[in-house]
């Protein structure tokens, strides 16, 4: 029996581990073969204390495991089978940043060695192979509608940590997307926007978020072009915050992360199942190569610095 919610505390707990800004960058490094503490620290820019905590959390969550090397007590951090299942989410994050980040530091080009084509990952429904977008998914809500979900988000939001410093490591790949969805309040605002919330007062009410934090996060999301600030009343001026194309394009990534967290739970703790409108089946998302349709694995993907 599920909880009747789309995002519950158990799923939020999983997202806390893998959706944290530093965890996203650690996973990026793990998929690139970076395994040693100092190597990861240099590329992520995390402090020693922060990196130690995040690595311990990922080990506790069975995403990474420690493997001794050399002499003494030195260890490497390697992906477990559970951690390797997050590769699809990392690929979607890579694609989002390649598509939308206009800075000088863009992710390197990826190539799928199985088919020899440039890798353009695609999130698709396992049942019908159609692409998964925000508009293609039925929330499959219970009779009570979204209010129980917002009540749960308020409770989850009360446990959020304050915003951490942004990534400053030598490797800037995925820095933008990790700063967007790696902040807990920003991610909850984004999820609320997926549910159709638009107005400032509604974000504040549904999430029980302090006005100064909400104002800061909304400004950040507007500056990042994830939300659009649109005036809907002239006097006094009032605004809606609607998903921009960049924001809508984050939906598959967030849903793949949700799915990963959900699949780690026993059946009685799982959230409400989503349904794909195209085929009417319960939604299971696969991330595949857009050219050959096969699921990429880390060893099948090569990285080129050529843009």
TrEMBL record:
Alphabetic keyword roster: DNA-binding, Transcription, Transcription regulation
Domain spans labelled HTH hxlR-type: 9-105, 170-269
Keyword Cell membrane: no
GO BP, sorted A to Z: regulation of DNA-templated transcription
SUPFAM superfamilies: Winged helix' DNA-binding domain
Any one Gene Ontology molecular-function term assigned to this protein's record: DNA binding
Top-level division of the source organism's lineage: Bacteria
CDD domains: HTH_ARSR
PANTHER family recorded: TRANSCRIPTIONAL REGULATOR, MARR FAMILY, TRANSCRIPTIONAL REGULATORY PROTEIN
Record's protein name: HTH hxlR-type domain-containing protein
């Amino acid at each position: 029996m599920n909880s009747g919610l789309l995002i519950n505390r158990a799923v939020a707990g999983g997202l806390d581990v893998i959706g944290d800004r530093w965890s996203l960058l650690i996973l990026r490094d793990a998929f690139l073969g970076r395994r040693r503490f100092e190597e990861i620290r240099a590329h992520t820019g995390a402090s020693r204390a922060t990196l130690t905590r995040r690595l311990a959390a990922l080990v506790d969550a069975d995403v990474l495991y420690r493997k001794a090397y050399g002499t003494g007590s030195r260890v490497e951090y390697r992906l477990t089978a559970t951690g390797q299942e997050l590769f699809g989410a990392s690929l979607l994050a890579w694609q989002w940043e390649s598509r939308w980040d206009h800075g000088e530091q863009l992710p390197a080009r990826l190539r799928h060695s199985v088919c020899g084509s440039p890798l353009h990952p695609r999130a698709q429904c396992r049942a019908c192979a159609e692409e998964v977008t925000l508009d293609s998914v039925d929330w499959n809500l219970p009779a009570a509608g979204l209010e129980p979900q917002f009540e749960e988000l308020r409770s989850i939001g009360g446990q959020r940590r304050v915003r951490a410093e942004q990534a400053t490591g030598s490797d800037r790949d995925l820095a933008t997307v990790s700063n967007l969805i790696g902040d807990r309040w920003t991610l909850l605002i984004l999820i609320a926007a997926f549910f159709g919330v638009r107005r400032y007062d509604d974000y504040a009410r549904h999430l029980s978020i302090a006005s100064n934090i909400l104002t800061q996060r909304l400004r950040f999301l507007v500056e990042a072009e994830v939300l659009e600030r649109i005036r809907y009343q002239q006097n006094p001026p009032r605004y809606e915050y609607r998903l921009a194309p960049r924001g809508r394009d984050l939906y598959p990534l967030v849903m793949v992360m949700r799915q990963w967290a959900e699949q780690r739970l026993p059946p009685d703790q799982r959230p409400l199942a989503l349904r794909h409108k195209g085929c009417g089946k319960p939604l299971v998302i696969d991330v595949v190569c857009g050219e050959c349709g096969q699921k990429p694995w880390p060893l099948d993907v090569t990285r080129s610095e050529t843009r």
